[in-house]
Every structure is written in C-alpha cells, then in structure tokens.
Specification:
This protein is α/β, with parallel strands linked by helices. Helices cover 46% and strands 17% of the residues. It contains twelve helices and eight strands. It has helices at residues 16-27, 50-57, 70-81, 103-112, 132-150, 165-171, 180-190, 211-227, 232-237, 241-250, 267-277, 285-309; strands spanning 2-10, 34-43, 61-65, 89-92, 98-99, 117-126, 161-164, 194-205. An eight-stranded mixed sheet has the order 3-2-1-4-7-6-8-5, with helices on both faces. It is globular. The two termini are 34 Å apart.
C-alpha cells in the first residue's frame, strides 16, 4: 500500500476556528488505498497552545515549533518528523486550502503516469468572494489559470499539490527564500522535472479581503521573484527553450503589469461571460476593481524592486480569514 503524508504549515497568527475548519476539510479527503498521516507543522504562540491541544485530541499529528525558517522551515521540519513514516507522496496544503475530495487520488494518478513530474496540482479558485477585493482577485484567477495551462514553467503557489516524496526529501525547501515555492519550482524545472496541471479537479483558497492585505501579499511575491534571478545560470543550463522563455516572462512581464491597464476596458465583457457561465450575477463594479487591482500590483512591484535594490527585506504579515 502506498503511503502519503499531508503537511499543513501553520503560522502563530492563525485562529483556532481556522484550524478546526481546515482539519475538517483535510480529513474529508479520499484516502482509500493509502496509508496516510496528517501533520500540522505549527508555529506555537504559547507553551500551552490551544490549537495544538485541539488537533491532538482529534488524533492528528502536530509538530510544535518556533518560527525558524517561516513556511519553508515548517515544511522542512515536518519532513524530518516524517522520516520514520517514509511516505511515497507528500501533499502540501495551507490552512485555507479546500481541495476537492478526490484531489489527492487524481494527483497521485497523474504522477504515476509521468516519472519526470515532481508535483501534480490543479487550477485554483477563490472560496471567499465576499467583497470587491476578493471578487476582483477571483476574476484575476481566471486569467492566471489560463496562463498556468499555457506556461512551461508551472509554479503552483505554496507548492499546494502532491509531490514525490523522494524529490522533496532530497532537495528540500530553501529557508532563505521569500517565495520558497517559486524557488523550489525553479530548481526542479532546471533539473528537468515537470509540474503537472491535472484536469477535472479543483482546489479553492482564500484571497485577501482588503487592499492592504493584497499589497502586503504581492510585495512578498514580487520580492521573491527578484531573488530567483540567482538561478539564471542554472535555468540556462537546462537548455529547455520553452521553460527558459516562460521563466523569463514570469519574472519580467509581471513587473510591468501597468501595460495591461488599457485592456481593462474589455473587462466588463469578460466578467459578463463568466457571470453567465457560472449562473450568478457578478457586479460590474469588479471592472473598476480590476483597474484598482492593476494599479496596486504595479505599486507593489515597484516597492519590492526598491526594497530589493536597497537591501531591505519584506515583512510577513498575517491575513484576515473568512470562516466558511
């Protein structure tokens, strides 16, 4: 029987209610045919963290840790704890991840059909379109899903998906990287591995619900993208022209997103299309939201570039969640 481990890194800022909701979604997944272990790698906020007690009372494994290495450190620490279990596959989720029930089984099936793949995942969708900010990001995700399907550099945010355990154990995550997911994806693609986008399944996640949270999130993403240029020689060494082109475009075009502003005049048409397709009304205010969104992304990119060139870091800040 194949073994699969599920790792959920948790920051000290996450509320108990969020953990309760997360654990319910993760335990509902279809694990038939697998021996499995669920590990919450938790940055504790006290010596008697109620979140740890609650999870352990449900039989879930909890790794208590300090904030060393942030998210990458949490996953690496979980890998160390899993050496006695030695899984064949490792699924990584965030506390706001809502994968469809057959997510793991379909991802494993895709990995077994392609020995050159290091990760399998699915298109992302927003689970909390509760205001203009999140509805605007929901519209953005339709574009990102299209680009993900076309790109030869498939980078799944947060490494949310199912990975081959042997590859993850061997290469581990870079705890110095701001965006450890993009860092790992760049290294794996450069080594000739592939990332698989699995059709027929979805995974939902929460978006920021305030413009300030969006700016803080994207500053980190942009800053992390600038760090990836350290791998330029490794990327070129791959000699995979399609991957190199996709990688370079991802690390250049996104920093001049303001050029897309004139295209926002077409956004009402696109939004109306998805409104009809999904059989629900989407406010045309989202069109205005997209204009604001593009401008804030450009501000975030410029801010990240300034901080990077001046040698300043970016601060990780907690994001407000919506209980569902």
């Amino acid at each position: 029987m194949k073994k699969i481990a599920v790792i959920i890194p948790v920051s000290k800022f996450e509320e108990l209610e969020t953990i309760i909701q997360s654990s319910g979604k993760i335990r509902e997944l279809d694990y038939r045919g697998f021996e499995y272990r669920i590990v919450y790698a938790m940055d504790v906020n006290s010596k008697n963290d109620e979140r740890v007690r609650w999870l352990r009372n449900t039989g879930i494994h909890v790794l208590e840790r300090e904030s060393r290495g942030k998210r990458a450190g949490a996953i690496n620490d979980a890998l160390d704890q899993l050496k006695d279990f030695m899984p064949d596959y490792i699924a990584i989720f965030d506390v706001d991840s809502i994968p469809e029930k057959n997510f793991i089984k379909e991802c494993v099936k895709s990995l077994e059909g392609n020995p050159q793949a290091y990760i399998a995942s699915a298109r992302r969708y927003i689970s909390n379109p509760v205001n203009l900010v999140s509805r605007t990001i929901e519209a953005e995700y339709h574009i990102l899903n299209f680009m993900l399907r076309k790109s030869d550099f498939k980078q799944f945010n947060g490494l949310i998906g199912v990975l081959r355990a042997d590859i993850l154990f061997k290469h581990r995550l870079n705890e110095e990287a701001i965006t450890e997911d993009a860092d790992f994806a760049t290294r794996m693609h450069s080594l000739g591995y592939r990332a698989l986008l699995v059709d027929g399944i979805r995974i939902y996640e929460q978006s920021p619900i305030s413009w300030s949270d969006l700016i803080n999130q994207r500053k980190r993403w942009y800053y992390g993208g600038l760090q990836l240029w350290r791998y330029w020689k490794l990327v070129k060494k791959s000699k995979n022209k399609k991957f190199i082109l996709s990688w370079v475009m991802a690390l250049t075009m996104t920093y001049v997103v303001i050029v897309l502003l004139p295209l926002m005049i077409l956004s009402p048409v696109v939004i109306s299309y998805y409104s009809v397709k999904k059989h629900r009304k989407i406010s045309l205010l989202t069109s205005a939201g997209l204009v604001v969104h593009v401008m804030l992304l450009q501000y975030s990119a410029l801010s990240a570039i300034f901080k990077f060139l001046s040698g300043k870091g970016v601060e990780w800040k907690s994001m407000k969640r919506v209980l569902q």
